Amino acid sequence: MNGIPDHLERGLSVVFIGFNPSLRSGETGHHYANPRNNFWRILHQSGLTPRLYQAAEDGDLLQLGYGFTNIVARPTKGIEDITRDEYAEGRRMLREKLVIYRPRIACFVGKGVYTEYSRRRQADWGFQPDPLLPFTHEFVAPSSSGLVRMPMEEIVGIYRQLNEYLRDSD
Questions:
Q1: Mean pLDDT to the nearest integer, 124-131
Q2: Looking at the 3D structure of the chain, how many domains does it have?
Q3: Where do the Uracil-DNA glycosylase-like domain residues begin and end (predicted)?
């Protein structure tokens, strides 16, 4: 199964970075397409989007200043199916994308995504000190997977911090 296309362009406010596409995303060609994934609800409830978007509208979020990519392009059933070599190549490619497109904020959708990218052992929620690239803020948000056990309101609250930063810095 092929990867799904990135939605990237220069000057974005936020690029959301996931581990890799789900099998459902691979089938549909859209980010966060698994119906058990809460990504679109989280964006709306946190105020990052003015309405509830569907996965098929992922390209439309470029108009809001939001883009999408993954650290690994290959769709899998779960992250346990991603190889060390894929992560190494994904880190290199992700860094290149961030250098080329220079988003204001790289939002890592899950601590594991950030630790794979940064090679740091741990991270707190929110903005990270000492970003790897000086022109992009790094923000770590909870995974939107339906498997996450964190209460939805807590997850939404962390994404709301990102929304407040964007609103206050404009």
A1: 96
A2: 1
A3: 8-154
pLDDT over threshold 70, residue 102: yes
- Tell me the pTM: 0.95
Residue 140 lies in a domain: yes
Is residue 3 one of the residues assigned to a domain? no
Can you give the pLDDT at residue 1? Answer: 63
Whether residue 142 is contained in a domain is answered as yes
CATH number of the domain that 81 lies in? 3.40.470.10
- For residues 13-37, give the mean pLDDT: 92
